Amino acid sequence: MARRCSSSSNVAAALALASLLSLLLGLSHGQLQVGFYSRSCPGAESTVASVVRQAGASDPTILPALLRLQFHDCFVRGCDGSVLIKGGNNNAEVDNNKHQGLRGLDVIDGAKAQLEAQCPGVVSCADIVILAARDAVAFTGGPSFDVPTGRRDGKVSNLRDADTLPDVKDGIDALRAKFAANGLSSRDLVLLSAAHTVGTTACFFIQDRLYNTPLPGGGRGADPTIPPGFLAELRSRCAPGDLNTRLPLDRGSAGVFDTSILRNIRDGFAVIGSDAALYNATATVDVVDSYSGLLSNFFGPYFRQDFADAMVRMGSIGVVTGAKGEVRKVCSKFN
Ligand code: HEM
Hints:
By secondary structure, this protein is mainly alpha-helical. The protein has 2 domains: 33-164, Peroxidase, domain 1 (Orthogonal Bundle); 172-314, Peroxidase, domain 2 (Orthogonal Bundle), CATH 1.10.420.10. 46% of the residues lie in helices and 5% in strands. The chain contains 14 helices and 7 strands. The protein has helices at 2-27, 44-58, 62-74, 105-118, 125-139, 172-181, 186-193, 207-211, 228-237, 260-266, 273-277, 282-292, 296-299, 303-314; strands at residues 28-29, 32-34, 148-149, 200-202, 213-214, 220-221, 246-248. Strands 1-2-3 form a 3-stranded antiparallel beta sheet. Strands 4-7 form a two-stranded antiparallel ribbon. The protein has a two-stranded antiparallel sheet with strand order 5-6. Bound molecules: protoporphyrin IX containing FE. Residues 61, 64-65, 67-68, 71, 101, 103, 166-168, 175, 192-193, 195-196, 198-202, 205, 272, 274 line the site of protoporphyrin IX containing FE. Heme b binds at residue 196. Its EC number is 1.11.1.7. Pfam families: peroxidase (PF00141). Its cofactor is heme b; Ca(2+).
């Protein structure tokens, strides 16, 4: 009897341990962990949120820029804050043309300055980028979600490393390959491109699409897949040679975090070429369709949760943890 009792209590203990472990595993991603700073710097997340909120209050366009910043950090050398480094000789990663128009780095610097005053040497710039993007999503009306933290800052920034960033001119195969190289699926490609539901693009990125695309019969002109009415609309916003005028990436629903970008992609109203390309291969067409049907909001997959999960997956690319890397004192400089 005593034996049976002790073996059943062993089983109960093992079960309790297993469920504790699965709880911990559920909350941690590799060596990252939700609430990593809860003891070492309890104000870390609220400080970043308040800096982002203030920045967004004085300039709402900074919120989409902060969301884009996570993509540009994570896709080059992983989410290690390398994009924040400023070099003297135009040879830092951030000087690469692929980062054209990147903004919000000063907001990250501002949050870092406050955090260094609160808890010196504790909160990495790489984590501040992730937290700021998460907050930017919520402040534009997107989902609120937990993000694991515990990244450290990388110690390398090379101009040429950013060459591999996805490009507006990439076809669907190239886009899928670049996401796959970072451990992300075709579904993630669609979900994360849907970040274009907020924010704008400079005409620079669509000049070739409007005026200089190689045509099947020879010569150059507009991308033939753009519906004529929409082409006229885009050309009226972006005259030939205009590089600076900005227009919403999500036609008719700028600044609102919703699935309208996916319906626009489905209906031929994608503004940049890489968004249009998402409707060129079955693997991504099916994903676009699954979120953009009439009844998707009721019966389809849940876009807001799926987007948040994809952000967390993107935030896990190539992270530096443990004793590797460093925690920078100033985000734009190595220690
Ligand atoms: C699939 C490959 C992608 C390409 C080729 C691409 C390209 C671009 C381009 C050309 C712009 C306009 C930049 C400007 O003129 O300032 C832009 C803006 C933006 N991108 Fe992407 N993007 C991609 C994926 C992503 C991902 C994965 C995210 C984040 C999850 C993202 C978030 C944004 C946001 C929020 C903006 C608006 C920025 C602003 O208004 O300042 N993009 N993207």
